[in-house]
Amino acid sequence: MIRGLYIGASGMVATQQRMDVISNNLSNSNTTGYKEVNIVNKAYPKKDLVRTDDNLQDLPRGTIDKRPPIGSLNTGVASDGTYTNFRQGQLRGTENPFDLALEGEGFFVVERENGQEAYTRDGSLTVSSNNELVTTRGHRVLGQEGPITIPPNMERISVTGRGQIVDQDNNILGNLRVAQFENPMKLEQLGRNMFSQGEANNLIDNPQNYKIHQGQLERSNVNAIQQMINMIEVNRHHEVQSKVIKQQNKLLGQAISKVGRA
Amino acid sequence: MIRSLFNGATGMRAQQFNVDIVSNNLANVNTNGYKRTRADFEDLFYEHLKVPGSPSAEATEHPTGIAVGMGVRCGATSKVYSQGNARKTENPLDVMIKGDGFYQIMQPDGSIAYSRDGSFKMDGDGDIVTSSGLYLEPQITIPEDATNVTIRGDGTVSAQVPGNAEPQQVGQIEVANFVNPAGLRNIGSNLLKETTASGAPQVVTPGTEGSGELQQGFIESSNVDVIEALTDLIAMQRAYEFNHRTIRTSDKMLARATTLLQ
């Protein structure tokens, strides 16, 4: 009886977490390079129910469980994990030569405030006051040979599909680094459109399968319709769970007030 | 739960801000030399309820953690310095910069501001001024009785002065270049101010060192693309509604939780 109450409660808590994740996706439906997050639930382990009126039989070496089983019972639900969906977002032209978009796998490499590397799909870049290529949040972009310097008085900047940055006279200013991971699922969200490497997650040497597009940005890959449908589902699921709890409460109330009455 | 409520609120606020930006762009669709502004969004930080790679109960490790995001905010607004369309006016003091560079405008307090608006006028003393009466720097005075004011691509201003067979050079327009024009600060009235992010101005002759040549008799119109702005507005309105729906659903779920005990 009380079990049923807690199973319903576990369902409500899990749907609430699901709602948190959906709401974050929807609020970031316009965030450059944002990747949709999905949450997966898991069932708690099943529990075998046994009759309790047959006692354990004591033997010289240990005990034998002689209680006859009457079946199993599920014990509720919990959130198991969030998975980032790294599906390609739509590319959008911006007419700004410092806007870069990645097609395919991988991330631009930037330097965080604490000097560590972070990874991002948001390629809206600009130049800092000391002529370094930075993100619009001011994080330095790391190329294959470290930070990239953009000299003043440049007529034109071109970025090739493999990330080579050249000026109007084809002088090479630097090579953008694209980081790919053995297990992108292990990347951790840092916020501000950045990811950190996470534990036990190695970089792939010599990454392939990417193309950089200049003058474009990658839109958020949130599928708003899918998220809305998920939200309807969450809402109804939550409603059912609350009904379960209310019903259990009613039954308990009846047990208290009616059982044992003449 | 409360997270999803506030995630929806951050999303609504972000879209509201986006509409503020686009409405200003649309309001300036006919402003000479206006450059459109873009809002860049970023996700807020994440609450890591479970870290990826942490040991699970089944003596394995969790392949992913549970990371719940906290919504969205505007990370930066940046100006898009693409060339606006040329509009023919046949007014000799309408001058357009074909490419990079800014006119230097003397402010009443003696400091220099920068502008792309080349619709110059002549004041009572024959000085070249902006529409609001501020002097062009370096100051150029057209002599009295002069006719046929000619401005060449390299910025030399010449005029036909009575008594001279050949046109006389009366001044030289210079343009200022910035490493990072997106770092300039808007002060309104089509004027911009230098900041540490924009770098120091490099004052050059038009057409040299990466700056654009001048074109007399033309005005650079706003680079706001009305169709793009309007489609953006539609997308923003829908995104606003999605986030509104998130808040309503969260509210319903909260209400359901509070009515569990009746």
Q: Any idea what the shape of chain B is?
A: elongated
Rg of chain A (C-alpha, Å): 28 Å
Helicity range of chain A:
10-25%
Provide the spatial order of strands within the biggest beta sheet of chain A.
18-9-10-20-19
Terminal Cα separation of chain B, in Å?
Answer: 21 Å
| H/E series of chain B | HEEEEEEEEEEEEEEEEEEEEH
Note the beta-strand portion of chain A. 25-35%
Query: Low-confidence parts of chain A lasting 5 or more residues at pLDDT below 50?
Result: none
How many strand elements of chain B? 20
Structural class of chain A: alpha+beta
What would you call the structural class of chain B?
A: alpha+beta
Residue-averaged pLDDT of chain B = 89
State the assembly state of the protein chains.
Answer: heterodimer
Low-confidence spans of chain B: none
Helix content of chain B: 10-25%
Instruction: Count helical runs of chain B.
Output: 2
Can you tell me about this structure?
The complex is a heterodimer of chains A (262) and B (262). Chain A has helices at 2-27, 224-258; strands spanning 37-43, 47-50, 57-58, 63-64, 69-73, 77-84, 91-93, 99-104, 107-111, 117-120, 123-127, 133-135, 142-143, 146-147, 157-159, 164-167, 172-175, 178-179, 188-191, 194-196, 210-214, 216-218. Chain A has 262 residues and is α+β, with helices and mostly antiparallel strands. In chain A, the strands form 8 sheets. Chain A has a 5-stranded antiparallel beta sheet with strand order 18-9-10-20-19, with no helix packed on it. Chain A has a 4-stranded antiparallel beta sheet with strand order 12-11-8-21, with no helix packed on it. In chain A, strands 15-16-17 form a 3-stranded antiparallel beta sheet, with no helix packed on it. In chain A, a hairpin with a 2-residue loop joins strand 19 and strand 20. The two termini of chain B are 21 Å apart. The model of chain B has no long low-confidence stretch (mean pLDDT 89). In chain B, the strands form 8 sheets. In chain B, strands 7, 8, 11, 15 and 18 form a 5-stranded antiparallel beta sheet that branches. Chain B has a 3-stranded antiparallel beta sheet with strand order 12-13-14, with no helix packed on it. The interface between A and B is large, with 68 and 76 residues.
